[in-house]
Amino acid sequence: MLVLSRKNGETIKIGDDIEITIVSSKNDQVKIGIKAPKNIEILRKEIYEQIQEENQQASKDISSIIMNLKK
Q1: Structural contact between residues 18 and 34, judged by C-beta atoms closer than 8 angstroms
Q2: Which of 8, 19, 47, 64 is the S-S candidate for 35 at Cβ 3.0 to 4.6 Å?
Q3: Strand residue runs (E) in 1-71
Q4: CA distance 11 to 21
Q5: How many CA atoms lie within 13 A of 46 on its CB side?
Q6: Is residue 67 classed as helix, strand or coil in its secondary structure?
Q7: Sign, Cα dihedral of 15, 21, 41, 39
C-alpha cells in the first residue's frame, strides 16, 4: 500500500485518467473528489463487498433451482 500525505486542494494522479483531490479534512474525516472516465466504476468498499455477497447468494439460489428442476 502506498501512503501519501496531501493537503486540502492537492491531487493524486493514478495513471493518465484518474485524479483524486483532497476536498477537505476535519478531525478524523477526509472528503475526496474523484475524476475518472465514466467506464470506471467507483464504489465504497463496503458497498462493493455487499454486491459481491449478494451475487454469490444469487448464484447459490440459481444452482438450487436448477437442481430442483432436474429432479
Answers
A1: yes
A2: 19
A3: 11-14, 18-26, 29-35
A4: 4
A5: 0
A6: helix
A7: negative
What is the pTM (predicted TM-score) of this model?
0.71
Total count of residues recorded for the chain = 71
Instruction: Tell me the Ramachandran region of residue 64: left when phi exceeds 0, alpha when psi lies from -120 to 50, beta otherwise.
Output: alpha
pLDDT score for 26: 92
Q: What is residue 71's predicted lDDT score, i.e. its pLDDT?
A: 67
Q: Report how far residue 37's alpha carbon sits from residue 56's, in angstroms, rounded to the nearest whole number.
A: 28
CA dist 25 and 5 (Å) reads 12
pLDDT along the chain (71 residues), means of 10: 94 97 95 97 96 86 72 67
